[in-house]
Structures are given as C-alpha cells and as structure tokens.
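Practice set, problem 2.
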Amino acid sequence: MTTLKAVTAQIKRSLAIASDLDIQTAAVTLMLKVIEADGHVDELELASLVTILRSKFGLDADEIQILLGRAKYMSQRAKSLRALAYSLSVKLSEKDRVRILEYFWQLAAADQRIDDEEREMIDTIVSGFEIAPAEISKARSDAEQKLASL
C-alpha cells in the first residue's frame, strides 16, 4: 500500500522535473531569439546551440530535439521577451543568469560576427534578467574580445 508520504514525495519529484523543463524551455526560447535576431539562422549558430545544450545542459540528441520544438512553440507564443526573461530570472541565481547571458553572447558570435540586431536582442532580454551592469558589460566585452582574437 502506498503511503501518503510516498505519494507526496512522487508529486514533489514530478513538480521539480516540470520546473526544470520550464526553465530549460524558457532559456532555450531566449537563445533562439538571439540567433534569429539578425534574420538569418546560421548553421554555426545552431551548432553552437546544440553544443551548449549537450555540454552545459547535459541533454542527448532526442532531448535536444524535444526541447527545441517546445522552445520554438514558446517563441511563437511569447508576448514579451522581457516578461519571459523575468519569469526565467526569478527561478535562477544571479550566477546562472550571468551564465545564460554568456551563452547569448557565445551564440551571437558563433557566426564570427555580432550583428546590431543580436546586440539589441540581448540587451532587451537582459533588461528582464536583473543582472548587475558590471556583469552585463563584462560578458559583452569578453564576447567581443574573443571575436576580435579570431
């Protein structure tokens, strides 16, 4: 017979998994917005996104496909990037928000250039992230320096 404690534990585990998926979907939706910002999704940008999802999120190919499908759907339905960014930011520590900001810049630079539209998109998203201005400047500067050294 299943105890109330066991059922409660199962519900908590299910909610934690759903919460992680929501966080991942929101983060990847914003990443897609960055690589779509210049009106052209480059193969290098997509490859960089897949690399981030594999190495940083620990996802396999099937999980990546599912997550990208959900992120594309969310991207089409999102009414406000700032609101989506804020809803993600309240679930993350500042360290994690900065890490995602760094991913944005990595994706923007993946095609060996950072377009003005990509900069504007990142700035728009970050306005809802509640990150210290010094961290924002550092992430942007680091990306531009890496790009200049290529």
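Problem 2, part (b): a different protein.
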Amino acid sequence: MKELTGRPVSEILREKYGEKGDEVYALSRAFFRRNSRAVSLYPGVLEALKHISRKARLAVVTASKREDAVRLLCINCILDYFSTIVAQEDTRYHKPDPEPVLLALSRLSVTPGGGAVMVGDQPWDIIAAREAGVVSVAALWGGAGIEDELYMYRPDYTARDPAELVEIFERLMQA
C-alpha cells in the first residue's frame, strides 16, 4: 500500500491496469464522492491547526485533485486554516519531487530555508521537504504502520501526536 501514496491515483492505476486504469479511476472517484463524509480528523488535529495558524500561514501540498482536497477540508471545517492548496493539477511533478513544495512556498512568499516546516505522514513528504530545503516533521499518529520506514528517511523531527507537533513548532519559533 505504501507504494501507492504520494502519487496521483490516476497515474498509479494506469501503471497497474493499463488501458483499464481510467475506468478503475472513474469508479474510485465515484466511491470517494459517496464515502468522503466518513473521513474525519485525528484527535488533536483541529487544536493544533488553531494554535499554529495563529502564528504562521499554512498550505496543503497534496497529490490529490484540488476538488477532493477541498471537499475533505470543508467536510472537516478546516479549509479556512490554509492560505493555499497545491494540488495534483498545479504541478507537472509530484512528491517526492520538490516542485509542489516550492510552489506552496512561492504562494506563501516564503523562501526555501526561510523558516518553513513541512509536516507529512509519508516518506514522499520527508523527501520532498528535504529537496525543497524545508524542515521536515514526520507525523506518526496516522497509524499507517510505516513508522520505521519514516525514520529511515531521517526527518528533522517526529511528532507522535498533534500536541507534540505544536511543541515542535513552538521550539522552532523560538530558535
């Protein structure tokens, strides 16, 4: 499953199913639209967003389509915490390539190495952050079962839960 994350689903399905990939993708999109309301935030995420967004501008960098990302953010009432969204259709290359991270930085008027932090729960996120010159934080609370793999990519920080992410953010703000 881990090899499927971080890349556009349409691309993965075309690789796996050839010309049937587009049909499988259409079915997966319909399933997502029917079931997306079941997606909820992990405990503590809303509180972390409230705290961090008071002190920093936030962006979403995703390999998902913008429509899907906005839908999930709206369902969970967190869209307004983010200043920009970099989605699948915004860049030619996707994580682990740094292009989407660099676009987010540009939209936020932040230079690489200028104090930006990227939080992610996949190896692609850690790689993209490093390649973009951004501090990386591995979010370990997702339960994806890849904690050891995330450590292999040597994130700058790890957070076991959203409260620990807030602590890391506060330390970085003081540095």
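Answer key, part (b): The two ends are 37 Å apart (CA to CA). Residues 21-35 form the longest helix (15 residues).
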